[in-house]
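[Solved] Which block belongs to which protein?

Original post:
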Amino acid sequence: MLLEIPNVFTAEEAAKIRQTLAQANWVDGKVTAGYISAQVKQNAQLAQDDPLAGQIGNLIIQRLTQNPVFMSGALPRRILPPLFNRYEGGQAFGFHVDNSVRKFPDAAERMRTDLSATLFFSEPQDYDGGELIIRDTFGERSVKLAAGSLVLYPGTSLHKVTPVTRGARISSFFWIESMIREDSQRALLFDMDIAVQRLARDDPDHPSVVELTGVYHNLVRRWADV
């Protein structure tokens, strides 16, 4: 399931974050790439231990855990601290698959990367190229969202970032371990949750609201890995 979530930050908030990040100390993006990915990765990245990364990363997680669409679509168990990258001057990231397991910074704890996320901070009209291309069984999807918007997609997906030939593409990227491992099960639960919410809004006294809510939670109980 590929899910676009608009307005995690307003355009004004995204602009302030972008301006702050533009003045940050960037390093070679290969520092967090695996052996294969490093061969096709050309970008700059904010160091994981940079205080700015922690400050903005915490704000991102706070916003997302208060976002009902994200919570319904991801059903997060753990979220890896967000990272930040910048593409410019023809930089790109060729097709790759994200590492299946990643380590938390400064800890021995590891987590599965069930879901990948990209949160855009640059407005699409301010740079050429930089599309996130996600390939799945239905073909390729091109994603280039407004500043402050996020795309969530399965960590199993083959994906790339096309060359940025004008301007700069600044974004945050990170991974989520879901309570529900299987993407198909998460998609079913998301569709059911949205439908139940719609029914509850349109006909709050309908007895199916309670019944379907029970079915939803029993499916979560059956499939959850916690």
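(Second protein starts here: sequence line, then its structure tokens.)
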Amino acid sequence: MSTNYYSPNFNVYHVRADFPILNERQSNGKQIIWLDNGATTQKPRQVIDRISHYYKHENSNIHRGAHELAARSTDAYEAARQSVADFLGAPSKDNIVFVRGTTEGINLVAHSYAKPLLSDGDEIVLTILEHHANIVPWQIIAQETGAVIKVAPVDDSGQIILSEYERLFNSRTKFASVTHVSNALGTITPIYEMVQIAHRHGVRILVDGAQSVAHTPLNVSELDADFFVFSGHKIFAPTGIGAVYGKKDVWEAAKPYQSGGNMIKDVTFERTTFNPPPSKFEAGTGNIADAIGLGTALDYVKQIGLANISAYEHELLDYATRELSRIDGLRLIGTAKEKASALSFVLDNVSVEQVGQHLSNHGIAVRAGHHCAQPILRRFGLEATVRPTLAFYNTASEIDALVSAVWELGG
């Protein structure tokens, strides 16, 4: 059966000790096996304790108070921004804007930067792999401006066809927005080449890193993306917090998406002068405590080493793929050579809802549905899949439990 994967730099059982919820049991007594990491990740004790410490010792609004708690809160918030910049390889913490998550980040870029560039007949390039959050905002601004969306296809393994992607770019192309890792299939797109293609055509590009940030090492300066967005809850941080990296010149060119306090330098009833980025895009009181939690989560991952995490998860994904492939009637959806985390599948004569419920009865948490990625599933003739997704605290024995439970239905 399973192999326990170790490396000199990573021990999964040491990591698991940091996550209290992994010892949780369901009402039926089954210990929870968390294989729904593509939806959200669990939180280590270090993040939980840091947020608690904030509310006990630092709670205050930021940037405005003339008292010590305001100074503590501001320092912690800005230190978290620096942690995000360091984790992503950004030149400065001023490249980082805090948002509620990837969805808000994409909307911010779509409305504050891309929309002013667009006029009737202009084009936006996406891919068929996109999450709905990287489709719907572009549809809305296309409807408002008369722009047209062009969609890059994938091959039968679920990988982007680069030649078809490049063929979409022309003189009318004004922006591109593409995923780094498919949330439905786990495909790792050739993102460096995709960024280079966009830039060769003079087009700015956003990279959706929601599903890659916890799994695949990446440096935004080396990547040269104009924008990179991700959600904290996908990388062991709280919900309701995320970040957008943007190059200095694109932030300076962008218009504020929301307005109010904190992003204002001076206000009269005749005019308003905005603060420089990133404050320019952070209207009102932000999610201070969870931004600090995000910084702590990234520091935690950085200490373990994302390269170590990626290597371990790759072995685990390979093992899970081999074992699931042995089950009669099971079809894996998304078989690209380069993959991360996701193991979407369907089972002959058993609905995805039935599989999901059966696994839940065994304490195994997976996603069963369309994963907010209907276009790519329909590319494979499906409306839904069962989607186990891995994180670095999962084990080979948990994969064995998954495989054994699915065997009961289809083996």
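Accepted answer:
You had them paired correctly. Confirming on the second one: The radius of gyration is 22 Å.
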